[in-house]
Amino acid sequence: MASVTVETIVAAGPDAVWAAIADVGNVHRRLLPGRVSAVRIEGDERILTMPDGTEVRELIVAVDHEQRRMSYSVQGPGRLELRHHHAAFQVFATDDDARSRLVWITDVLPHDRAPAVAARVSRGIEEMRAVLESA
């Protein structure tokens, strides 16, 4: 299984960053406005609606407030035709209370999809950083 890890330093405290990550029903407002146009929750699943109307169904696996870790799995192949997808965000404190480290790890199959996934998550984490810093 290919694993893609990206991270960024956010000019916002870890509690604020974690609050946005843990708010799984508001990705379109708190993390990726413009990239995600709507979200709905059905049980343990989150359905993201993209601006073109495409829907992505994700299983929310865990929201661990103590560890500031949220994990999810995309259900179905989607645009990248993945056979398997599991990802996790984790928020860490830094030496500066006004900043935090946001890490996003994504495991995918087939292996050859890793470069496409890496491009998406690299762009996505920078978009999230900008939104979190502007909040």
From TrEMBL:
Gene3D superfamilies: 3.30.530.20. CDD domains: PYR_PYL_RCAR_like (cd07821). It comes from the Bacteria. Transmembrane segments: none annotated. This is Polyketide cyclase/dehydrase/lipid transport protein.
